[in-house]
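stage 2 :: seqdesign
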């Protein structure tokens, strides 16, 4: 077999055989297929698609390229959540300890932000001392200590995906449902969780801009998980506006802690509780009320244990950006639109995100919202506060927000927070 034969087949719209898929992933991981050949194949897949059998074979081959974690020594079921990424999406932070407090273990391998979407590890790293890199033994220790662990995937997990994702990122081949679904699910299946809830975001701030494409991605991922023996469900949730009132690393940790303390913005609380109930049901844990675990402090206790077990100080003061500026409401009326992509881009330009994987992020940078779509505002009242370490970042952030919000005499409606459930 050779790479040219496989590329030509997909280029000409021919289904790849399982043997071809196994060979190409194996050879690419080992260096026998060159990056330029894999780029051509990724583009052919983006243009011509893959059917369910091809996607399943591709996913299994990527899982086999590395180690598969095993939590069968634990005495309780495992559950995880994966979000396809958005703006202000800090849900993992309150959710993981909440589900742990209700009786399931949460072993979550998470990622860093790229572009306008934030990454869970970047958020947690704004806590002084907190460490993202753990060995498998350390993961097990944190799980036993706190019930939940959120850390970086080691280099041994789905190495084929690591290589391929970096390549897709620079060759315009990220936006392919078969490639996104197999990339996400290879890591989640290799992570060894018994059950998985997918939060597939829909809207301007998400990969998937429409409910139809999000549903196709969700159905593909649910089928991959289910076929691999992982109890998998997906929610389609709104990402046309930011989630919560804080966008940016330390700002989002603060908001997550408010939720764990029994407060926090209504949408963050609602989605956290909904996902917690889905995770517990998928894990087969019954008789626990996540709302009670938020109210009685047991979720907060699990959070504190989880942060401390990974070297972080849960009582430390979080970093603050040195400079702020405000954006005011241009008129009185209803805030009908506050675009997730515009706010995410602004936060990125303020320093909260990175342009290249190796770039550092600012812990304190970001955007605070003072109103959400649907709220009544008065002309001149603060709508947003922008936070940055250097004041010269404000100009380009304000440009990103230009046209990203609207105030009108009457509300125009928006996507429901939870749009649909896919099983
Ligand atoms: N996240 C991933 O892990 N892979 C993709 O392809 C897209 C988002």
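stage 2 :: out
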């Amino acid at each position: 077999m050779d790479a040219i034969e496989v590329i030509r087949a997909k280029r000409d719209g021919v289904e790849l055989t399982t043997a071809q898929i196994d060979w190409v992933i194996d050879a690419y991981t080992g260096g026998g297929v060159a990056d330029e050949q894999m780029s051509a194949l990724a583009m052919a897949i983006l243009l011509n698609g893959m059917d369910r059998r091809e996607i399943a074979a591709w996913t299994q081959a990527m899982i086999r390229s590395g180690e598969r974690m095993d939590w069968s020594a634990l005495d309780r079921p495992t559950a995880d959540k994966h979000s396809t990424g958005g703006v202000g999406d800090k849900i993992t932070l309150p959710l993981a300890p909440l589900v742990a407090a209700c009786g399931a273990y949460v072993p979550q391998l998470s990622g860093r932000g790229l572009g306008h979407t934030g990454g869970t590890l970047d958020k947690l790293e704004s806590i002084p001392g907190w460490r993202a890199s753990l060995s498998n033994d350390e993961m097990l220790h944190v799980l036993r200590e706190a019930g939940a662990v959120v850390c970086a995937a080691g280099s041994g997990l789905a190495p084929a995906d690591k290589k391929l994702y970096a390549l897709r990122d620079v060759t315009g081949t990220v936006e392919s449902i078969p490639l996104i679904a197999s990339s996400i699910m290879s890591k989640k299946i290799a992570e060894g969780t018994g059950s998985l809830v997918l939060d597939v975001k829909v809207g301007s701030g998400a990969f998937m801009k429409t409910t139809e494409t999000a549903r196709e991605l969700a159905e593909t991922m649910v089928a991959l998980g289910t076929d691999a023996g992982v109890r998998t469900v997906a929610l389609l949730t709104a990402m046309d506006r930011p989630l919560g009132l804080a966008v940016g690393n330390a700002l989002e940790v603060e908001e997550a802690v408010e939720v764990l303390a029994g407060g926090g913005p209504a949408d963050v609380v609602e989605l956290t509780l909904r996902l917690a109930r889905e995770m517990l049901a998928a894990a087969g844990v019954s008789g626990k009320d996540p709302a009670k675990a938020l109210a009685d402090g047991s979720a907060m206790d699990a959070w504190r244990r989880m942060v401390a077990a990974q070297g972080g100080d849960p009582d430390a003061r979080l970093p603050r950006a040195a400079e702020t500026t405000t954006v005011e409401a241009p008129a009185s009326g209803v805030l009908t639109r506050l675009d997730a992509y515009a706010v995410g881009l602004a936060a990125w330009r303020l320093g909260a995100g990175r342009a290249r994987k190796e770039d550092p992020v600012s812990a304190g940078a970001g955007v605070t919202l003072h109103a959400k779509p649907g709220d009544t505002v008065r002309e001149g009242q603060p709508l947003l506060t922008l936070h940055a370490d250097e004041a010269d970042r404000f100009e380009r952030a304000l440009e990103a927000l230009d046209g990203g919000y609207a105030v009108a005499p009457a509300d125009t409606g928006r996507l429901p927070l939870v749009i649909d459930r896919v099983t």
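stage 3 :: structure notes
- The domain at 3-49 is CATH 1.20.970.10 (Transferase, Pyrimidine Nucleoside Phosphorylase; Chain A, domain 3).
- Residues 16 and 54 are 7 Å apart (CA to CA).
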